[in-house]
């Protein structure tokens, strides 16, 4: 299993974002997770496409843009222009989910849908062909540093079996990412429930040695396998 770690720069030091991105990539980050909040879909406000564009030349790994905005289509266009590699959004925030996914796919980018803790899995059913990634929220979106909601493990197992079934039929593998409260101490059981990509914000940027945290996470993943 090819596990990937996606540090969320939501918990980085904003006074030196470029340096933080470089440091966390040097420490072994596979993706840079970029949390976009609009104070409308979620009760918090972060950064937009201009910051993504500024970080694009700094990042040697794909930028994984998580849109917590409503509506989504204009921001999808803006982040395509800004050089995002993966763009995911919440189905509740789009009037026409299939159309929003097409916007991303037609630009040659990878597309993801994000399921909140209470969002049912069946929203995935008719759009699997357009998905490169499913992102399961293991906290309610809006803030870093919250605790992992244990029920996410059951949901992960359900989505894993849906995606495995789809892969058996089509040969196409869809990434299963988890976001919220992921730490070295719980990453193994999250992997065992079916996730392959792990967002971690406070667990990484809350420590001074990023290398040590990411190494600890990878060791836990090796033991989980
Ligand atoms: C929450 C964001 C997460 C957040 C995760 O709305 O989508 O990406 O940064 O932070 P931690 O890892 O601290 O829970
Ligand atoms: Zn996120």
From TrEMBL:
Cofactor: how and how many bound: Binds 1 divalent metal cation per subunit.
Binding site for substrate: 8, 66, 142-145, 179-181, 201-202
GO biological process: pentose catabolic process; pentose-phosphate shunt; reductive pentose-phosphate cycle
A GO molecular-function annotation: metal ion binding
InterPro entries from the UniProt entry: Aldolase_TIM, Ribul_P_3_epim, Ribul_P_3_epim-like, RibuloseP-bd_barrel
Binding site for a divalent metal cation: 33, 35, 66, 179
GO cellular component: cytoplasm
Signal peptide: none
Pathway membership: Carbohydrate degradation
EC class of the enzyme, as a word: isomerase
Substrates-to-products reaction catalysed: D-ribulose 5-phosphate = D-xylulose 5-phosphate
Coiled-coil region(s): none
EC annotation from Swiss-Prot or TrEMBL: 5.1.3.1
Cofactor: Co(2+); Zn(2+); a divalent metal cation; Fe(2+)
PROSITE patterns xref list: RIBUL_P_3_EPIMER_1 (PS01085), RIBUL_P_3_EPIMER_2 (PS01086)
Superkingdom of this protein's organism: Bacteria
CDD domains xrefs: RPE
Catalytic machinery residues: 35 (proton acceptor), 179 (proton donor)
UniProt key word Metal-binding: yes
Cited Pfam families: Ribul_P_3_epim (PF00834)
Record's keyword terms, sorted: Calvin cycle, Carbohydrate metabolism, Cobalt, Isomerase, Manganese, Metal-binding, Zinc
HAMAP family linked to this entry: RPE
Function (record text): Catalyzes the reversible epimerization of D-ribulose 5-phosphate to D-xylulose 5-phosphate.
Family of the protein in this entry: Belongs to the ribulose-phosphate 3-epimerase family.
Protein known as: Ribulose-phosphate 3-epimerase
Organism: Kingella denitrificans ATCC 33394
Phylogenetic placement of the source organism: Bacteria, Pseudomonadati, Pseudomonadota, Betaproteobacteria, Neisseriales
